[in-house]
Amino acid sequence: MVDRKRIAVFFFLCAALLSGCRSMTLQQGLPDKESKFVVRTDERSIETGRLLFALKCSRCHDPYSTDRVFGPGLKGILKRAVLPVSQKPATPANIARQIRHPFYEMPAIQELSDDDILDIIAFLNTT
Ligand code: HEC
Description:
Elements: H1 2-29, H2 43-56, H3 92-100, H4 114-124
Bound molecules: heme C.
């Protein structure tokens, strides 16, 4: 009986440890500091980002022009000096932040993982 309890506790601790590690790596995925942000340039990330953008962003944003849909057009967003509405520097970290903690009218999009956001930025880097 005691052994069974010990085994249960052992598994519980393992599970807790594993989920702790997972959330740590997820947090590390989206760097806060500009200097640590590496924009992905591989085809697979860009392609995934294109699909995710079509699913999650394109009803409000045109990635291929600067015309407004509901939100501003995002063509060449990473080549601009500032973001169109907030006028914050147009950096990958600020775009990532906009998705989770939007500046104004845009709804926060919480269901995207850090990985998804990095792929969307990889795609936006190509328009
Ligand atoms: C329901 C409509 C809607 C969706 C969906 C949406 N946006 Fe927006 N977005 C807006 C609006 C409106 C603004 C204008 C600024 C604001 O309200 O924050 C905006 C602003 C922005 C800006 C400029 C922010 C600034 O600081 O000027 C970026 C970059 C952006 N969105 C990226 C995205 C990305 C990437 C997605 C998909 C993951 C997305 N948006 C999904 C409506 C939307």
